[in-house]
Design a protein that fits this description.
This protein is of the alpha+beta class and about 900 residues long. About 30% of the residues lie in helices and about 10% in strands. It has a five-stranded mixed β-sheet with strand order 6-5-9-15-16, covered by helices on one side. The protein has a five-stranded antiparallel β-sheet with strand order 11-10-20-19-18, with helices on both faces. Strands 1-3-2-4 form a four-stranded mixed β-sheet, with no helix packed on it. Strand 5 and strand 6 form a beta hairpin. Helix 14 packs antiparallel against helix 21 and helix 15 runs antiparallel to helix 20. The chain is elongated, with a radius of gyration of 51 Å.
Length: about 900
């Protein structure tokens, strides 16, 4: 027990002259139990404060005897510790008394004075360090356990889709869906020079350092705090985490997350995976995310082809993309070149580039930035067609296309594509007059297919995708006109169809070509289509009716075959089953269907390939991240007999040689084809093929403001637009250029029995409606080819007369007659209606060169059962 006892102030009645002590003294008395005595109930310690004498006072020789308080009879041991000032000598009274106890002579540790008072002791420092370390370790493990690797941010996963020509060169880069110009590539698709350049610029010890570098972070923080500018202390791993997983804001929370995610990522992913991710997510300026997009944006090449000089410049851009673009900011070129040199020097220092190679390098100026969206000209049309193909054939969904990242190699051949554009420009666009209202309506579409493979090698969509968004090659809202007629004949041969009097339908079968002749054998109501310019042709062979595109003949043939079978054959050849207005009635023969140019090209390619159909394709290969996407099988099958397809080809060859498509001979190759005109002359077509190439061209009329279909009367300064005019001229120029350098192939045809020998084109006419069809050779009289330059005229109009076919000097039959092959006006006939020749007293038909203002072409009536060209200006000669 400790007890404080005050020092006596002087006993009452005692010596009053003794002065009180001036200093305080603490007396600690320890009382122990005496040996041999029973143990005391408790120990008592007495603390007594005694005033010690002040300096200068008389010191007592003997201190006042302390009062001993204790338990039992034990002797007390007392220690007196006087309280003194800093200058007073320390006085200690030795303990006295009996027992084993003795006083402790050590004094209290002196207080720190001066500056030492502000310096913590080593024990405090050590304790603080230990506690702090434990706290940091705890916080690290807490943060490590709490922070999870999040999913990638939305921006990092979006990519553009890249479209390539068949040869692998870039066609277009479409960023519209993702709104990001990025194409992720594997590390193997980035040159070693590019990899090393980026490492030299951003993190030279990447492969040997941990995921985070605390020293670099502290150094960067110190440099920024001391005004040395904003610096990054992040490793490539940390930068990748920021780009791929986090946002770009500069906050402590984001930095903390970046730290912990980087540590985890460094444990879970290899260095190559992290570098690949970093290269694909870094921003290089010009809207380009990733090394591949940057290589294209600045140098027009793939990342795998980057050499050291080009790679070093791209690596320099990562540090300051906008500032180091020397094209956009030429004033910053010295800084950009300095950074470029820094990168190259780093590559040399790390042994990635030899000094000799580095010495010979020159700064590679990037190309001018392309402001265009990349979809101008034909590129936008091609991209749209390919996207539709991918989704329509269930190769990719629209959602997948939106996420992007696909590398799509198309079947489009760049040289043929360029040839198609030039042909349209030369034969159509260059001839338009902006002051001519009709010329403002002109639109064009084209498609070219390899018959043997079904690969689409070229498409023409319009003058410019950024000016005319509707794709002329794939739109399906114009009637195909008489280009549908060959499908009727193919179906007739395929199905072994016969005329109303039971005669097989062959190229030599005679039909009544009288204008407005009622169709027989059709139970759907009266139907009597008009011919072009309401001409009547009398008894005419199928071949000649095809040359002249006689509506009354083909409407009757469709009734003979039946509309349902005709429709099925068209679908088998490649026309979609859901094509609008493809009704199974006699009018189907006149081309009421609204198929697209591309679909018609597919069907004609099947005819060119001897009736073997392979679904057309625009896609050669699709990959994402280097992994291929499965494409549907491209196997072909025989959809119509070779005999049916080849016999149709034989008939269509005649159209080019002597019919409405003679302008196609300018291709300089054996060719077959058919012209066509839509109702009201809103579209003119030519569909043709050689053994190597099937191509369809259409010129369409559309109001640029209302988008309504418009007739092409007066376009290009011509009264009417017909298929034998600009469409055929475009076809001929394109085909000639596209096949330039390739030997001309001949048609290898397996014809229908009886089609090998060509029958006379016409016979004496019958009364309208009395005979639906007649086989060749059954007419009274001797058919021969007269020398009189008429086209199907009959002498006296009697059945016994000698039909002539516009013979020419030298024995070569012509259309309208010619001396030495030159076109002339049609010869007159002595009565009867003649194709190309006028009746006695009439106006002679024919025209020089077969242009739209007269002759050269045969009637190609408009679709829908109306007289072709109804409402248009009357012409003298025959027209497509």
């Amino acid at each position: 027990m400790l007890r404080r006892i005050k020092a006596p102030q002087g006993a009452k009645g005692g010596n009053q002259s003794e002065p009180p002590p001036t200093e305080s003294t603490q007396v600690l008395r320890r009382i122990k139990d005496p040996k041999g005595e029973p143990p005391a109930d408790e120990h008592t310690q007495v603390l007594r404060r005694v005033n010690a004498p002040r300096q200068g006072d008389k010191q007592p020789t003997t201190p006042a005897a302390p009062t001993v308080t204790g338990t039992g009879s034990a002797a007390a041991a007392t220690s007196v510790i006087p309280r003194t000032s800093d200058t007073a000598p320390e006085t200690t009274t030795a303990a006295s008394g009996s027992g084993n106890g003795s006083g402790n002579g050590n004094g209290k540790k002196p207080k720190r004075t001066g500056w030492r008072r502000f310096v913590p002791g080593w024990r405090l420092i050590l304790g603080t360090v230990v506690v702090g370390a434990l706290l940091l370790v705890g916080l690290f493990f807490l943060g490590y356990s709490m922070v999870k690797i999040p999913p990638a941010n939305a921006l990092a996963t979006k990519q553009s889709n890249v479209y390539l020509y068949a040869d692998g060169s870039q066609l277009a880069r479409d960023t519209r869906d993702s709104q990001v110009n990025r194409e992720n590539v594997n590390l193997s698709e980035v040159s070693k020079n590019a990899q090393h350049a980026v490492l030299a610029a951003e993190d030279r010890d990447f492969y040997t350092e941990p995921a985070v570098d605390p020293k670099a972070m502290l150094r960067a923080g110190w440099n920024m705090a001391t005004g040395k500018g904003k610096q990054s202390g992040s490793t490539i791993t940390q930068q990748y985490v920021k780009n791929y997983y986090l946002a770009q804001e500069q906050t402590l929370t984001r930095k903390a997350k970046e730290f912990f995610i980087s540590v985890k990522l460094g444990r879970e992913k290899s260095k190559d995976e992290i570098l690949q991710g970093y290269l694909n997510t870094s921003f290089f300026g010009r809207g380009a995310y990733g090394i591949q997009a940057a290589a294209q944006a600045y140098y027009g090449k793939d990342a795998v082809k980057l050499d050291a000089a080009h790679a070093a410049y791209l690596a320099a851009l990562v540090n300051a993309p906008s500032e180091y673009d020397v094209v956009a900011h030429p004033e910053n070129k010295p800084a950009a070149v300095a950074r470029w040199n820094y990168v190259l020097d780093g590559m040399v220092k790390k042994g990635w580039l030899s000094q000799s190679e580095r010495t010979g390098l020159k700064f590679p100026m990037p190309r001018e930035q392309t402001i265009s969206t990349g979809l101008s000209g034909q590129r936008g049309y091609l991209v749209e067609a390919v996207k539709d193909y991918l989704t329509d054939h269930h190769i990719l969904t629209k959602e997948q296309m939106t996420r992007g990242g696909y590398r799509i190699t198309t079947t489009i051949q760049k040289d043929k594509q360029d040839d198609f554009v030039k042909a349209v420009d030369d034969q159509l666009i260059s001839k338009l007059n902006k002051n001519n209202k009709a010329d403002t309506y002109v639109r064009a579409g084209g498609a070219s297919v390899d018959p043997k493979t079904g690969r689409v090698v070229a498409l023409y969509g319009g003058i410019d995708y950024l000016k005319q968004y509707t794709n002329g090659a794939t739109r399906g809202d114009f009637q195909v006109g008489s280009t549908f007629k060959p499908f009727v004949f193919t179906s007739a041969v395929q199905n072994g169809s016969t005329t109303q009097d039971g005669k097989p339908i062959t190229p030599n079968t005679y039909y009544d070509g009288t204008n407005k002749r009622p169709v027989q054998g059709w139970s759907g109501g009266a139907y009597a289509p008009e011919n072009e310019d309401q001409k009547s042709y009398g008894q005419i062979t199928v071949r000649k009716a095809t040359d002249l595109s006689v509506n009354s003949v083909y409407a009757q043939m469709a009734a003979d075959v039946t509309g349902a079978k005709v429709k099925k054959t068209a679908i088998d050849l490649g026309i979609p089953a859901d094509t609008p207005d493809m009704y199974p009635s006699p009018s189907i023969a006149l081309g009421t269907a609204n198929a697209s140019v591309l679909e018609m090209a597919q069907a004609y390619a099947t005819l060119a390939n001897h009736g073997r159909h392979g679904t057309y394709t625009l896609i050669d290969k699709v990959t994402k991240g280097g992994n291929p996407v499965t494409l549907p099988g491209g196997q072909s099958k025989q959809v119509v007999s070779r005999e049916a397809a080849d016999t149709t080809t034989s008939v269509l060859r005649s159209v080019v040689e002597t019919g409405t498509a003679m302008a196609a001979k300018a291709a300089g190759r054996p060719a077959a084809g058919k012209t066509g005109t839509a109702e009201r002359d809103t579209a003119a077509w030519f569909a043709g093929y050689t053994p190597d190439l099937a191509t369809v061209v259409a010129v369409m009329g559309q109001d640029p403001v209302t988008a309504q279909h418009q007739p092409l009367y007066g376009a290009l300064g011509q009264p009417r637009m017909n298929g034998g005019g600009p469409p055929t001229a475009i076809w001929a120029q394109y085909t000639k250029d596209a096949l330039s350098g390739k030997p001309a192939a001949t048609f290898d045809l397996d014809l229908q029995q009886g089609a090998e020998v060509e029958a006379p084109a016409t016979l004496a006419p019958t009364e309208p409606g009395t005979d639906a069809g007649q086989d060749g050779g059954t007419a009274t009289g001797t058919p021969s080819q007269g020398a009189t330059p008429t086209d199907g005229g009959q002498t006296g109009g009697a059945a016994t007369g000698t039909p002539t076919d516009g013979g020419a000097t030298g024995g070569t039959p012509t259309d309208g007659g010619a001396t030495g092959g030159a076109p002339t006006t049609g010869g007159a006939a002595t009565g009867g209606d003649a194709a190309g020749g006028a009746a006695t007293g009439g106006t002679p038909g024919g025209a020089t060169g077969g242009d739209a203002t007269g002759g050269g072409g045969a009637a190609d009536g408009g679709a829908g059962g109306l007289p072709a060209g109804l409402g248009g200006p009357a012409l003298n000669g025959r027209r497509d």
